[in-house]
Design a protein that fits this description.
By secondary structure, the chain is mainly alpha-helical. It has nine helices and no strands.
Length: 157
């Protein structure tokens, strides 16, 4: 099998129903793009994730992981542990530190930005479950659509 743009593009087929819902938030990023656009953007990003480059961020990843682990030790003694939000915060914490040299402290204290990210994730998921919300004309007039626009405004700000 020949490896080239057409082969790479064929393995990135994404659900347009989901991509359409994420586009106002994520734009035309590599996360939701398809085909030749995805292939080109992936090739541009790949060198940034080389092991030699990532090695310099091990201390940052470890620091963020220790914060999450401390939170888990406190939470697990009292109840069941919902890991998704914690992993999301770990990822965001590491990304902000590594890509932007910004210590958001997002795992230890809440912020308007983090709350908006979590709300957008929930709203995208719930939108898929309601058939009437699949149409933009209806969705943007609902309470959920208005909350989505507000959270989107916060994230983009």
């Amino acid at each position: 099998m020949a490896v080239g743009p057409s082969w790479e593009a064929s393995i990135t087929v994404k659900d347009e129903l989901i991509s359409h819902r994420l586009r106002p938030w994520l734009g035309h990023s590599v996360l939701i793009s398809n085909g030749v656009v995805w292939s080109r953007e992936r090739r541009l990003l790949t060198p940034a994730f080389h092991f030699d480059i990532l090695r310099s961020y091990i201390a940052v990843f470890n620091s963020s992981s220790k914060i999450m682990h401390a939170t888990w030790r406190q939470v697990v003694s009292t109840c069941n542990l919902e890991m998704f939000d914690h992993i999301t915060l770990l990822t965001l914490d590491s990304l902000l530190k590594c890509a932007f040299s910004y210590d958001s402290n997002c795992q230890e204290s809440s912020s308007e930005y983090v709350s908006a990210i979590l709300e957008l994730s929930d709203l995208v998921t719930h939108r898929r479950e309601n058939i009437f919300h699949h149409w933009d004309q209806i969705y943007w007039k609902t309470q959920q659509g208005k909350r989505f626009k507000q959270a989107l405004k916060t994230v983009h700000k």
